[in-house]
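Researcher: Please generate the 3D structure of the following complex. Treat every line as part of one assembly.
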Amino acid sequence: MTRSRKMMILFMFLGPTLAAVILLRLWPASMAVLESLYAPRAQTMSLENYAYIFGDPLFQKSILVTLIYSIIVNPLQIAIALALALLLNVSIPLIGLWRTLILLPVAIPQSVSAVVWGIGLRPDGPVNGLLVALGLGEQRFLTSPDQALGSIILIVSWIGIGYWMTFLLAGLQDIPKSLYEAIRIDGANRWQQFRYITLPQLRRTLTFVLVANTVSNFLVFAPVQILTQGGPQGSTNLIMNDIYTRGFVWGDSSSASAATVVLVSLVLLVVVMQFRLMRAPEDNAA
Amino acid sequence: MTIQPGRLFRIACIVLVSILFFLPVWWVTVSALRPQEEIFKYLSPLSLWTLWPRDASLIYMIELWQGPFATAILNSIYITVVTLVVGLIISAMAGFALAVMNFRFRETIFFVIVVSFLIPFDAIALPLFGILSKANLQNTYTGLILPGIGNGLAVFLFRQFFMGIPKEIREAAQIDGMGWFGIFWRIYLPLSRPAIISAGLILFVFQWQAYLWPLIIAPAPEYKVAAIAIAQFADLYGVNYSLIFSAAFFISLIPMLVLVVFQRYFTASVASTSGKG
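Model: Done. Output below.
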């Protein structure tokens, strides 16, 4: 086979994917960087757009909201997902069905979950109906600046917990039973089994779930755009919503690009951390 | 076998939690079957009718399909099917080249492909919008489909799977005079059902869920996808809740069926590829 013919064949196999990589990721990412370096009407590159957004109280607040949201939503989802994985790591009748019921919300597009929960959280909706039946007062949920972010957290958690649980469950089932037997012979109680076997053995899965969860939570958009548009009073203005508002509602693509670069850097930082953490002390137990 | 109280308590917890998670899905289904005025009727105080349709009827589901929603869900199906077919083919071909063909910079190219796809798509949707709208791809199926077809995880899955196929098979085929396309199409692809299913699920979920991208690239009504249509329902029908719930039911039904059927492949493959990165 001639060299050029070989190159042709190789190009036919790899070409479409390479084109997709360049067109759909690398080019737009470099466009964002480039555009973020040109302030409106400026002739030379500068960090003006960055100075502008970081000095903008709206952007400052959106970073603050994103941080508060991340600090609550990630540990919350992972703690519940881990608790459920431990709970469901057992053989009982119909176990597949129970796991599937918890996983099911993942299949529903986020926009649909948002619309449905938006109706569910209305003042006359079923959630308030339930709270009243339990003797608790009605809540305002999405219309209250104090409760709107919590309501978004409830919605994304309903969607995500089953998904993360599934990974953790797979991780739990990979732990060799012999390890538990050994430590039980040494007289370890349930907590010690969890502390000295389960947690260390689950480290890699947990790290993956933590980082992947953090990344996906940084990118939450549909529920915010559909339900609150960042309000009330900016209390749910997560970073993706801020970028969308700048770029498409105000038509300010310069500061939208700068905010995009900030977000992508944040996400890549988290991804790099994932690889670092996962490569840490390799599989101590053989 | 004796049943210990601890085990019984655990079973009760599992059933309760599962039902709690499923409740909103059930509520959507029930609400899709009941008339407008009954949707909020049985909520306070709660009654048996809260979770069971009193006058169940399919008329809302039928009415839904006569409106613009039919276009939206057909658009979603069309876009997702094309994404699946094209995306699977190009990812499998790239995975094949990266797994079995020898060429310079193979590892580097593989690294670049995987790393570039780590840039989250939604975060760069705005600059991509700038690029594709200059190419006049606004309000086109091509514009809607493009972002879904390239997926680093799908390429990765195929490469891993193809590397596991013994090279003796390919050598034998080469001796028989089969070219690379023949080997790919007639030998490797038919062997790779698990990889096709896992990669297919990833591509499917991405495209069926897409919200931000269709929102900006295709605002015209005739290109609306289901995930957008439902969010804008209030304007179209003056908030007809029966129709909203019927739409939610249909949009969710397809991915739920897919998930239930292919669940085991999905969790197994994603856990073993990314979870153990």
